[in-house]
Design brief:
The chain has helices at about 35-50, 70-85, 95-105, 150-160, 170-185, 200-215, 235-245, and strands spanning about 5-10, 15-20, 25-30, 60-65, 90-95, 110-120, 125, 130, 140, 145-150, 165, 190. It is of the alpha/beta class. Helix 5 (about 170-185) links the parallel strand 11 and strand 12. The chain starts with a strand and ends with a helix.
Amino acid sequence: MSMNILAIDTSAITATAAVMVDSSLVAAFSVNLKMEHSTRMLPMIDTVLSSAGLKPTDIDLFAVSAGPGSFTGLRIGISTIKGLAFPFNTPCAAVSTLEALAYNLAFAGNMIICPVMDARRNEFYNALFTVSDSKGTLVRLTPDRAISADALFDELFATGKAVLLNGDGAKKLYNIFSNKCAQEGRNFTYKLAPEHLIYQNAATVALLGEKSMSEGNKLAPAMLSPVYLRESGAERTKKSNEIGVNEK
């Protein structure tokens, strides 16, 4: 019996959907323009499913990038997958956005893979990985986290290893690193991934979803929830207002 997986990622500006059948990618669609995921994602899903000759009822696993990322984008992705999976209680897989980005670079050999997403407020969402073998097996070096550019620079510089950057924050971080090296007289090797491997890709979400299911980590649709890593602006404002009221 075939194993059909539908995967999506709406965690940043890129909207991407893919269908994998028996570990083979059969259809994929990505758009890297304005963040209009609420209107764009369902037509994209319909396109990849029809291209693969499948219907939502044919899907055995729904995989979704669960975070970190844009709060609104993550909510759109999670709610979309829940809506598709609930009618038949189809199993789901929640995939780390950063791990899926790192999987784009599973050819990186002895380099440190450094996916970064712009988290605003002078921080980046980040995790570090290496590749342990010729099969592209990822080894996680850090948890998913929010970290400043300065702290990440110091951490990577201390490893003495070459670094490969991707993610929607990669170009911004590359420029920050270049300025720091020029100003501080410190140098190490850091490179941007090729353009087609910088951004989110639902195919890697599908592959990691398949891996998650094989390890027994599938979820019921109701158990899916976004991973934000830090409070939203609204939550920070609410807490600030509450502190102000208490201090009066």
